[in-house]
Amino acid sequence: MKVGILGAGGIAGVMAQTIRLMRENGCQDVELYAVAARDLSRAQAFAEANGVEKAFGSYEEMLCDPALDFVYIATPHSHHYEHIRLCARHGKHVLCEKAFTVNARQAEDALRYARRQGVLVTEAIWTRYQPMRNIIRETLDSGVIGAPCLVTANLGYFITPNRRIVDPALAGGALLDVGVYTLNFAEMIFGRPDSVRGLCTKMDSGVDMTDSITLEWADGRVANLTAAANSISDRMGVVYGTKGYVVVENINNPQALEIYDAKHCLVRRVECPPQLTGYEYEVLETVDCIRRGLLECPSMPHAETIHMMEVMDQLRAQFGVHYPCEDLAPDAWD
Ligand SMILES: NC(=O)c1ccc[n+]([C@@H]2O[C@H](COP(=O)([O-])OP(=O)(O)OC[C@H]3O[C@@H](n4cnc5c(N)ncnc54)[C@H](OP(=O)(O)O)[C@@H]3O)[C@@H](O)[C@H]2O)c1
Question: What is the mean pLDDT of residues 183-212?
Fold first, then answer.
């Protein structure tokens, strides 16, 4: 299956490396065929550096190539809605970076349109597709820590020098960039919460810089989450239960689990299975689902993508963070 990368920025390079490693490791199901940037020379430089066959100086030009099977969207959050619709209009399947769109209304509209066009669209939230997700689930289901009651998780990077993170016009802020992983971590463990509360500090530009989030479930379970764009955090996630707790190393690509008993003694350490980059799982599932004629991937169903955007909408309403691109009516993009 021929893949095109839309937007030649940072994560696009990591995806190019992932597909190259997949092929070197015997996966011939996927081929890095094309890249498109808003500027031809940037696309050509990316293609040369990453061994990509075709370079296009406009996104639409790449989408007109009949040989292209699916597109990896690697642009800022503010542009995902427009770019998903553009791909769908050209009949191309989509793997779109997180945060999926800027709000739930955009997510619903883009997914409805893609279904009408008969193309698969899926959110590139890599932790949902990785084998560690099931390893964590099986560990908790085994009862080794008793009944899980509380989750804590944090994710922070020093990314405020990056314009994409600061600029409201690019839907910047900690929540959509890194907070989304803490929310996905908590909800992969406890499911959908009954209440969502948050507060934040802001950058001078008005977007959120550090977020404190509390999710609650009616039966008393709680998740306390922290996201930061101005500091480096230890990225730990911990699930606390009635008989012990599980520590997850790096919720943004879990590398190991450590299980502790009620006396704080280490019971077991479980390592992550070997990875190429960790992004290969979302690519493999996308290819498999396209082949099977599905319009969504089971690891991240459309309903979950929309739900995560609804949770972030609620949080941003509480934070008082609003993006200029939200004021455009959906049909203004056509
Ligand atoms: N899954 C992960 O682990 C992970 C990690 C990092 C980022 N991400 C996600 O990937 C997406 C891109 O992030 P990134 O860090 O790769 O960003 P980046 O380095 O800034 O690249 C974004 C690309 O978007 C294109 N673009 C189109 N319109 C633009 C505009 N108006 N302003 C700026 N750029 C525009 C540009 O490509 P051209 O000019 O070349 O067309 C640019 O190179 C975001 O959704 C982010 O959350 C995911």
Answer: 98
User: Average pLDDT over the chain, rounded to whole?
Assistant: 97
The tokens describing 159, both together, are 């990314």
pLDDT tens digits, 76-108:
999 999 999 999 999 999 999 999 999 999 999
Q: Which residue's CA lies nearest to atom 7 of ligand 1?
A: 11
Q: Which numbered atom of ligand 1 lies nearest the CA of 125?
A: 1
- pTM to 2 decimals? 0.97
104 preceded by a cis bond (ω within 30 of 0): no
Domain range summary for the chain, segments of one domain joined by +: 2-126+279-301, 131-271
CB of 37 sitting under 6 A from ligand 1: yes
> Fold for domain 2-126+279-301?
Rossmann fold (3.40.50)
Residue 245 pLDDT greater than 90, yes or no: yes
Distance from C-alpha of 67 to C-alpha of 33, rounded to nearest angstrom: 9
Task: For the domain made up of 131-271, give the CATH fold.
Answer: Dihydrodipicolinate Reductase; domain 2 (3.30.360)
**Does ligand 1 have an atom closer than 6 angstroms to the CB of 180?**
no
Which three-class secondary structure state does DSSP give residue 244? strand
CA 250 to chain centroid, in Å, comes to 15
Is there an atom of ligand 1 within 6 Å of 38 CB? yes
Write down the pLDDT at residue 331: 56
